[in-house]
Amino acid sequence: MENLISLVNKLQRACTALGDHGEESALPTLWDSLPAIAVVGGQSSGKSSVLESIVGKDFLPRGSGIVTRRPLVLQLHRIDEGREYAEFMHLPRRRFTDFGAVRKEIQDETDRETGRTKQISPVPIHLSIYSPSVVNLTLIDLPGLTKVAVEGQPDSVVADIENMVRSYIEKPNSIILAISPANQDLATSDAIKISREVDPKGERTFGVLTKIDLMDKGTDAVDILEGKSYKLQFPWVGVVNRSQADINKSVDMIAARRREREYFANTPEYKHLAHRMGSEHLGKMLSKHLEQVIKSRIPGIQSLISKTIAELEAELKRLGKPIATDAGGKLYSIMEICRIFDGIYKEHLDGVRPGGEKIYNVFDNQLPAALKRLQFDKQLSMENVRKLITEADGYQPHLIAPEQGYRRLIESSLVCIRGPAEASVDAVHAILKELVHKAIKETLELKQYPTLRVEVGNAAFDSLDRMREESKKATLKLVDMECSYLTVDFFRKLPQDIEKGGNPTHSIFDRYNDSYLRRIGTTVLAYVNMVCASLRNSIPKSIVYCQVREAKRSLLDHFFTELGKKENKQLSSLLDEDPAIMERRSALAKRLELYRNAQGEIDAVAWAK
After folding, report:
1. 181 has which bridge partners?
2. What is the DSSP letter of 399?
3. Taking the complete model, does pTM exceed 0.85, yes or no?
4. Nearest-CA neighbor of 2 among 97, 130, 141?
């Protein structure tokens, strides 16, 4: 059972070391799930004296006004033998054997956090005391409740202290140790008042009555101690602390405890309650109860830790890895991010992710439709055919067939195909750029670094622009090739009837009659349609080879080449992560470390059992 309290002690120290004080934050808190005993009382209620009686040492600051200005997590460790000593978590290598020095260090550490302005702070001080005369116990000493701000304190300090105390005791895992003086009306007790607000049924509250020996003559606290005046689930405990005169005379704790036992044993009103009175009994009772509560909470804490670790790991994964400090590490990080982006981009083109199918739509629908819309009728109108045939003949009319006229008609028609060819190149270029935008959005690692995201996008667009220009050259060459060399077999298969070719005995004007010219136009149109059918298949091949294939192979090659020339400072400028994200990642990493340590500590105790 002692291991359980030691376990919680370790977890509380780890929480404080890693910034988890249980206050409201955007991070999950382990502190709030750990059972703890919070000591609550008004000023001059004897709260400090109760704690010193449980420990058996003078170690707490004393004085007028608000003395405790930060929560003090007091962890008591029972040792079998040896000299008793104290350790502060903020001074891990130093052991205090002089408890007067412990008192001074509490004051100094409070001032380091709050200054000498009597302000308060929710950041706790951790103090561990190792002694053969203590029980294993953890107590959190909270600032005393007050009704009036003293000089040097803001008016809000009264509400600030109350809010701090409430934040500790309102948690369901908190055990409340409510300190009330017997020489004041219990109805006015600050500790009972605030405890009743958060624990109306008294299920988590232990009542402690101090200054019983200072009550007016003829009065006693029997009704309170027997639970008749104010009933709690646990029995009230009365204590008799050292008086101020005893403290001034440096009366030791051993003598004070002996006198306390004698008081309850010899006072007729309290003799029947003596077995459960006194600071020694209080310490043992709290230790036993704390062990039981911790034991009952362990399964829930384990479940919470496992769930929170998974959530923290998921968020850290989403935020990405931290930035490397050296140039090599930064270059490697940038290259890795770019490779991830490049892989996602290829997945879009290969059909693993959506978007690549739009390219096929250009080839299967847009290009054929554009070719079909070409108005060859204008090029092959009767007037145009007659004009080009006549011009091609020059002063010497053709003898058999107007070959030069055919060439001019075909070339002037095929030139129209350049438009749909260029439009197909541009359409695929637009799709490839759209896929770059998609891939950038889907590359989570790029979200960390706005500048790198812009640079990668610009580099990809520049590469696509170069590929588009190369693709246009190659695609238009296909059209120009068709213009530069006609398919002879097509014309050889045409009927060579002299009537259709023209009768050389006819006059030059008969040679250009409508029927003859119409047949020429029909022949040219048939040839142009054959070429269109051929280009419909070859243009997509050229575009895929020059644009799609190259985009998959070398989209960021030029960027990588330039990247290798950059200095550390230039690489740093690319990895300009949002400071808020960096801060969040650091906080999450610390909190994850806390939860993993906690998981290991709890598992070790579980296996030991």
Report:
1. 210
2. S
3. no
4. 130
